[in-house]
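Quick one, T. Sequence first:
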Amino acid sequence: MGLPDPARDPTTTHPRRVGTSVQDHGGTSVTAVRLRDIVGRLIRAGHWEPGNPEILIVMDSGYDVTYLSHALADLPVVLLGRLRSDRVMLRDPGPDRRGRKGGRPRRHGGVLTFAKPDTWHTPDTATAADTTRYGIAEATA
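Structure tokens:
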């Protein structure tokens, strides 16, 4: 069975079409309910069965993918969310500081800024592929 065409198949829909808002405070909970409904309809329509690969849900940067992955953990889905290029993240704090002075444990480690490669860690792995449209695509992790 091929992939459904969202424009023609009533069992699929785009979350924004059913009134999801990512701006308001309750938007993430609404999104979780809507996605749960959509995945349920896909399963009931026979577009996903046990043994199939998980359903890939791709989201823009406005969605709280961390919360949604927790809220939808019981479903056969994988969430992929885009991160803004100006995003700043804090690394793990590392080992506790022990010594004569003691003090409060660190909450955060160093800063990782997407827009500043000099703040990135040394990658554990890297890959590159030549694409027909964009040239060489590179990824590190």
